[in-house]
Design goal:
The complex is a heterotrimer of chains A (290), B (297) and C (414). By secondary structure, chain A is mainly alpha-helical. Chain A contains 13 helices and no strands. Chain A folds into two domains: 35 residues, no CATH class; 239 residues, MetI-like fold, CATH 1.10.3720. In chain A, helix 1 packs antiparallel against helix 13, helix 3 packs parallel to helix 7 and helix 4 runs antiparallel to helix 7. The longest helix of chain A has 34 residues. Chain B has two domains: 36 residues; 210 residues, MetI-like fold (Orthogonal Bundle), CATH 1.10.3720. In chain B, helix 3 crosses helix 13, helix 4 crosses helix 10 and helix 4 crosses helix 12. By secondary structure, chain C is of the alpha/beta class. Chain C folds into two domains: 184 residues, Periplasmic binding protein-like II (D-Maltodextrin-Binding Protein, domain 2, 3-Layer(aba) Sandwich); 216 residues, D-Maltodextrin-Binding Protein, domain 2, CATH 3.40.190. Chain C has 19 helices and 15 strands. The chains are: A mainly alpha (290), B mainly alpha (297), C alpha/beta (414). At the A-B interface, helix 1, helix 3, helix 4, helix 5 and helix 6 of A face helix 1, helix 4, helix 5, helix 6 and helix 7 of B.
Chain lengths: 290, 297, 414
């Protein structure tokens, strides 16, 4: 008995988490899949009614906007946040005297929720109140920054605020990466007279490949879950120009009483997640197990 | 912008070096301004009087400082018919966040330890399932979770909220610890086993003492997530258990009546103080912990 | 899984038989969190306490009740429904169909609600013949608010047709004044839209379009004319309107930056709070066309266990429709009482106009539910319409396209 216990302790330790994940993640995904096949309205119902909700979803222009926004937003957000994070990390890695303070300044937005910063961002981006008005006040009468109120550009203000919030975190990841690259190799390269930028592009950045992956995972997780951001900044507007799948789903489920529709949109979101995460998991776990 | 990433120490004359150095600091300073801008607007607004906000420029220093808004936000602002400010809700958040952070960190540490060091068939599958769970949009789980909480008798309670946060925090905490522990040589565990140490003994006396950096990272991450949560807070609470983000929402998002922007901003900053504090104080360890941990993952 | 946790036991028998045994308690989920509203709810709470009850407040602000709706759904599903919640329009019947609402007919009949409420408003409070909700107020949605001084300075009278409105707006624009103060949020676009629609389609057309969802009306030339007028109005709005809260738009009218605002009578509360006097500083008139669009707030009671809670529900329902609360609350809120037998002496001239129009349109059959405020249609349908309205208003979509999209969206939402 004790021997059995000893051998199986690791499994027993994992068991509660395993059960919890099975129920609260996969059980709930299954539940959502089920509900997405029903005509649930205000509260979930369980009579299956085929793929009607998916038909409705794909013929909804608003979903089209939300879904394509996810890619525009996700792509720009992830790429810019990574590039900016990398640049900031490299800049900050040059023996900066005030590194601690600057790093904290870059990192703090991650600590705040958008419920907190939403109003401030709304003001700053509002042409009549914020940046545009201020710069015009300085005498640059033609300065224009009205993306927030322009249906074609509003999604980019969401990108800006998202980058503001997360790029510091990416910087911290890269900074950690830079600090862990073997300094011997770098010094050897410098002794050989290889220009610094070459050292970065040929040695340091390739060595940080795992960080890019971690950053990508964290950022895509944030991109897919982006919700507070849109609600606080644009409320999905102008019109529904800045709707994202998460806000679409929320609106359907909770302000429209159309839970079946919400569930179908959730399933599509989940498919996107699946498409991103499975290749990552595959490469990550295969390489480790050998 | 790409050329800013050159290390300026190797090339050019000393005059060029100094110029580059200056350029570097100016760059860093400009970025700092970008990051500080919203906080600046919030802080200055919270010290202005309503009259000044109405008449003045948003992006300017207050003409005269007043702490009234802070006072009101903490203990006098109305959220519904109660005018007790964010104070009571603040303590609810503390009661939710601290146990939830500690529990999810502890369980994540044990999970990560097993997955990284006690490999058995299916351990990787477990990890993959766990990780995928990080990505589930929380809007999806609200309704079935409400039902589960009801069945468990935890609906509307603080333990219920703690439970929810622990469950949906496990993915990330397990990921952090697994990536950290995977870099610790397996020989260490083997040697300890030969010496007769058991599962918990090895965890307690070998792994835990090595784990400070990653514990800090995990706690910062979890604390931020849980403290800032609104969706779970608004869905799974009832009168008396609402967290501070819900109270803040009630103050900030009231759409009728005169908007007391200074109180809104002060309340927002108060709600954000604990996470800000954690980042400022522990930010150093954060980078250090990341260096030690996820890099190798 | 049926809603058996909630137990579909009728509360009626218990309600009557256990009266005077338990001390009434109520946990009330609502989204009245701003100054004037909260003050009004406080009045109710005091009355509740004065009658021996214990009131637990559960406010959730934001999104015109969206966040409160989220909380409500989660709580009902978890079997922990609040005693009472602020729900309105067809959503009351939707909740009833889920089998989670309590029957308050005993209170309603004892207090003679059928006599004191206008028929169409009483209709919203009934589910399959029983009373299931208690009305608090009647907001009128189809109002134009104006800055009296600006109009006088430009020699403009309050418009009584949309053509007059357009002429006035053009004149104001030339004078450098923003003709229409507007906030570009979907529900505000919808508010203007339904006022325009009422004027152009007429009461009957409005009913066909937004209550019956009649396809012919929705795609008619008159409906195109409604979208045309929306396009015209888009030109009268300043360029910063996107995302603006409605009260900031009201402030623009107050300080003379803008001349008109089309908004429900909660806007009046803003003018009053700033010390302005109706008829002197600001003017109110119904939007062009016959009819009255109402937005009625109400409380629905949930089927909960415990005599104390059932007592609380009965007391709450009684007080909410009681004369005193109806007067005090609506004085604060800008609306008028739902019951028709409350003396309006303390109310202002706009409220008098509202009450007179309500009575007249109740007679004439043009007392109509506001679609934009969730009184006419269920969420999925009204949301589908609003999506089209806001997409049209915020782009260069043609009226023909909009009408087609509208028909598709409705079909897709059913």
């Amino acid at each position: 008995m004790t021997k059995w216990l000893e051998e199986n302790t690791p499994k027993l330790v994992l068991a509660p988490s395993f059960v919890a994940v099975l129920i609260f993640v996969y059980g709930f995904i299954a539940w959502t899949a089920w509900v997405s096949l029903t005509r649930s309205r205000l509260l979930p119902k369980y009579e299956i009614d085929g793929f009607i909700q998916y038909d409705r979803l794909f013929s909804s222009p608003r979903w089209d906007t939300a879904f394509s926004n996810l890619f525009v937003f996700g792509f720009l957000f992830i790429v810019i946040a990574m590039v900016l994070g990398l640049i900031l990390a490299i800049l900050l890695d040059q023996n900066i005297r005030t590194e601690g303070a600057i790093r904290t300044i870059y990192l703090y937005p991650m600590a705040l929720s958008m419920i907190v910063t939403g109003t401030a961002w709304k003001w700053i981006l509002n042409p009549g109140l914020g940046l545009e008005a201020t710069v015009r006040g300085w005498g640059f009468e033609n300065f224009t920054f009205d993306w927030l109120v322009n249906p074609d550009m509003a999604i980019y203000t969401v990108v800006i605020a998202a980058i503001w919030q997360s790029s510091g975190f990416v910087m911290a990841l890269f900074l950690a990466g830079l600090r862990s690259v073997d300094t011997e190799i770098i010094r050897a390269a410098q002794v050989d007279g290889i220009p610094t930028w070459r050292v970065y592009t040929a040695i340091i950045i390739p060595a940080m490949a795992p960080i890019f992956l971690s950053a990508f995972i964290v950022l895509s997780h944030l991109a897919i879950k982006s919700f507070d951001l849109v609600i606080a900044l644009t409320g999905g507007g102008p019109g529904y120009a800045t709707d994202l799948p998460a806000t679409y789903m929320y609106a359907m489920a909770f302000s429209r009483g159309d839970i079946g529709q919400a569930a179908s949109s959730a399933m599509i979101m989940m498919l996107v997640v699946f498409a991103i995460i499975v290749p990552y998991l595959y490469s990550e776990l295969r390489s480790k197990d050998g | 912008m790409a050329d800013m990433s050159y290390t300026p120490t190797q090339t050019g004359s000393s005059a060029g070096k100094i110029a580059l150095r200056w350029g570097l600091y100016i760059m860093l300073g400009l970025f700092a301004l970008f990051y500080l801008m919203p906080l600046f607007v919030m802080v200055t607004t919270s010290f202005k009087s309503l009259e000044e906000i109405r008449t003045g420029d948003l992006i300017s220093l207050p003409r005269e400082f007043t702490f009234d808004a802070w006072q009101t936000a903490w203990s006098g602002a109305c959220t519904g018919i109660q005018c007790e400010g964010v104070r009571p809700y603040f303590w609810n958040s503390v009661l939710i966040a601290i146990p939830a952070v500690l529990l999810s960190t502890l369980i994540g540490a044990l999970n990560g330890y097993v997955v990284a060091q006690w490999r058995f068939k299916g351990a990787n599958l477990f990890f993959a399932l766990m990780l995928f769970g990080c990505f589930i949009p929380f809007q999806v789980v609200l309704l079935p979770m409400a039902r589960m909480l009801g069945l468990m008798g935890l609906a509307g309670t603080i333990p219920g909220l703690i439970f929810v946060h622990v469950i949906y925090g496990l993915g990330f905490t397990t990921l952090f610890f697994r990536n950290y522990y995977v870099s610790i040589p397996a020989e260490l565990t083997k040697a300890a086993k030969v010496d007769g140490a058991g599962f918990f003994r090895i965890f307690w006396s070998i792994f835990l003492p090595l784990s400070l950096p990653i514990i800090v990272v995990t706690i910062i991450w979890q604390f931020t997530q849980i403290w800032n949560d609104f969706l779970f807070g608004v869905s799974f609470s009832q009168a008396g258990t609402q967290p501070v983000t819900v109270a803040l929402n009630n103050i900030v998002n009231s759409t009728t009546g005169i908007k007391a922007y200074n109180v809104d901003m002060a309340a927002a900053i108060i709600a954000a103080l604990p996470t800000l504090f954690v980042y400022v104080v522990a930010g150093k360890y954060f980078v250090r912990g990341l260096t030690a941990g996820s890099v190798k993952g | 899984m049926k809603m058996n946790v909630m137990g579909a036991v009728s509360g009626l028998a218990l309600l009557v038989s256990t009266a005077a045994v338990a001390e009434p308690t109520a946990e009330v989920l609502h989204y009245w969190t701003s100054g004037g509203e909260a003050k009004s709810v406080a009045v109710l709470q005091e009355e509740f306490a004065a009658n021996g009850g214990t009131w637990t407040d559960m406010p959730v602000a934001g999104g015109g009740g969206d966040a409160a709706g989220t909380a409500l759904r989660a709580r009902v599903l978890s079997g922990n429904a609040p005693t009472a919640a602020q729900i309105k329009g067809p959503a009351i019947q939707e909740w009833y169909e889920e089998g989670v609402l309590a029957d308050i007919s005993a209170v309603a009949e004892a207090n003679n609600w059928a006599e004191v409420l206008p028929a169409s408003i009483a209709g919203h409070m009934k589910c399959e013949g029983t009373w299931c909700a208690a009305p608090v107020n009647v907001h009128r949605v189809d109002w134009i608010w104006a800055n009296a001084e600006v109009l006088a300075a430009n020699g403009i009278d309050m418009p009584t047709t949309w053509d007059e409105f357009n002429a006035a707006a053009a004149k104001l624009q030339d004078a450098g004044i923003i003709p229409l103060a507007h906030g570009g949020q979907a529900w505000q676009d919808a508010t203007v839209f339904e006022a325009v629609a009422l004027g152009i389609l007429g009461a009957e057309g409005y009913h066909k379009a937004f209550v019956d969802l009649d396809t012919d009306t929705l795609t008619s030339d008159s409906m195109k004319a409604v979208f045309d007028q929306m396009r015209t109005m888009r030109g009268y709005v300043d360029s910063n309107f996107s995302g603006r809260d409605w009260n900031l738009a009201t402030a623009m009218v107050m300080n003379g930056e803008a001349a008109f605002q089309i908004m429900g009578d909660w806007a009046k509360g803003e003018f009053m709070a700033a010390g302005q006097v109706p008829g002197e500083d600001f003017l109110c008139i119904s939007t062009p066309g016959e009819g009255f669009l109402y937005n009625v707030d109400s409380f629905a009671m949930f089927d909960v266990g415990g005599d104390d809670k059932k007592e609380g529900q009965a007391l709450l329902a009684e007080l909410v429709v009681g004369k005193n609360f109806q007067e005090v609350f609506n004085l604060n809120k800008g609306s008028i009482p739902a019951r028709t037998d409350v003396a309006l002496d303390a109310f202002d001239s706009c409220a008098h106009l509202s009450a007179a129009d309500m009575a007249a349109s109740n007679e004439g059959g043009s007392l109509l539910p506001s679609y934009a405020h969730g009184m006419a249609l269920r969420g999925a349908q009204s949301g589908a319409i609003t999506d089209v309205v806001t997409a049209h208003f915020n782009s260069d979509m043609s009226s023909d396209e909009a009408v087609e999209m509208l028909a598709n969206a409705i079909a897709n939402s059913l």
